[in-house]
Design goal:
The chain is mainly α. It is built from 16 helices and three strands. It has one domain. The model has no long low-confidence stretch (mean pLDDT 88).
């Protein structure tokens, strides 16, 4: 790779990712009770391995000019749809959802990679749009995301479907979505809530009702949120110390190395630990958005904004559900929650962001 390209890398993005990953490995070690005699550091080691695999994938994403990915957008879109269809017909079930495809000893989650696919393919699609002033202008965009969203919702995975919609709206906002049109869509969305409510699965309705009042089912659907709030609140300013959280170590806190990893951090590292993590996310997102607006062309801007919207939405929803201000969904906390598919996709997305940033200006030879 040319040294002039390397000078354009936004190193704060890489540094933030590395520091968040270090926090992730420490908190996962605690969340999986690795310090006790019967415990194991296997999950934490796997997170490190996924980070290493992710680095290789990130380098690949950096080396290939992002315009090439845009050129292959039709192929990427078709492969994305086929992978999501394969999950429905051949996928493995776990936790009440059918989201994984077994590849040897690993389970691949295509819905995670669908996010990256949408960032690339929708950016290519939107580049051809001159304006977003009428409903007709938006129709093709909604049609573009409708297929993946419906297939993912079928698994069922409402959380990831919402992430993709958030990405689309973030990209449309930057593309100049007319505010009157946005207000009309929002109003229509509000009036359609009764219909959407009827379409929700019983467990999804339960999550929303429990979000409003967790004590409707304190030992069932509300248990996660109640225990998470107790854990975070008991951490106070400085936390109880790594491997010292009672809600965590005594296993009162469920799915603590994935969905509720922020609660473990809040209990053991306290308010200050949470602030450090949020500061790292702020740095990461700030420089990502900076790359978007310095991009060489619109397609680069749209790609990066789509990914920034994805990360922002996931951070807000995951931390929000941990502190009880958002409904519980299966949305992971980027670079913190354990999960091979999620981590690998996020590292590939970082590579794409750095790719756009490196090529933000013409290189003179």
């Amino acid at each position: 790779m040319d040294s002039k390209l390397l000078k354009n890398i936004e190193y704060p993005i890489l540094i933030a990712v590395i520091l968040i990953t270090i926090m992730s490995v420490l908190i996962i070690s605690s969340a999986t009770n690795a310090n006790i005699s019967e415990g194991s550091f296997r999950t934490a080691k796997m997170q490190i391995i996924w980070f290493g695999v992710g680095l290789v994938a990130m380098i690949f994403m950096i080396l290939v000019d992002y315009h090439s990915f845009a050129h292959w957008s039709n192929i990427i879109y078709v492969l994305n749809i086929l992978a999501l269809l394969l999950v429905i017909f051949k996928g493995e079930e776990g936790g009440g959802a059918q989201r994984w495809i077994d590849i040897g000893p690993f389970g691949l989650q295509p819905s995670e990679f669908a996010k990256l696919a949408i960032a690339i393919t929708l950016a290519r699609h939107m580049e051809k749009k001159k304006s977003l002033k009428t409903l007709k202008d938006l129709l093709s965009i909604f049609m573009h995301v409708a297929g993946p969203v419906l297939l993912i919702a079928k698994q069922p995975d409402l959380g990831t479907s919402l992430v993709i919609l958030a990405m689309a709206f973030g990209m449309m906002f930057v593309a100049g979505l007319d505010y009157k049109l946005l207000a009309g869509i929002t109003t229509a969305g509000i009036f359609s809530l009764p219909v959407l409510w009827k379409l929700l699965k019983p467990y999804q309705k339960g999550r929303i009702l429990v979000f409003i009042n967790p004590y409707l089912d304190p030992l069932g659907k509300g248990y996660h949120v109640i225990q998470s709030k107790i854990a975070i609140g008991s951490g106070k300013l400085f936390g109880k110390g790594l491997f010292q959280g009672t809600q965590n170590q005594l296993d009162f806190l469920p799915v603590k190395h994935t969905d509720f990893i922020f609660a473990v951090l809040g209990e053991e590292l306290g308010f200050l630990g949470g602030i450090v993590l949020l500061a790292l996310y702020f740095i990461f997102l700030y420089y990502t958005i900076k790359v978007a607006f310095k991009a060489r062309d619109l397609i680069g801007t749209y790609m990066v904004i789509g990914l920034a919207s994805m990360w922002t939405f996931q951070i807000l929803v995951n931390i929000g559900m941990n502190i009880g201000i958002m409904p519980v969904t299966g949305i992971p906390l980027p670079f913190m929650s354990y999960g091979g598919s999620s981590f690998l996709m996020n590292m590939m997305a970082v590579g794409l962001v750095l790719n756009v940033g490196m090529r933000r200006q013409k290189i003179r030879f």
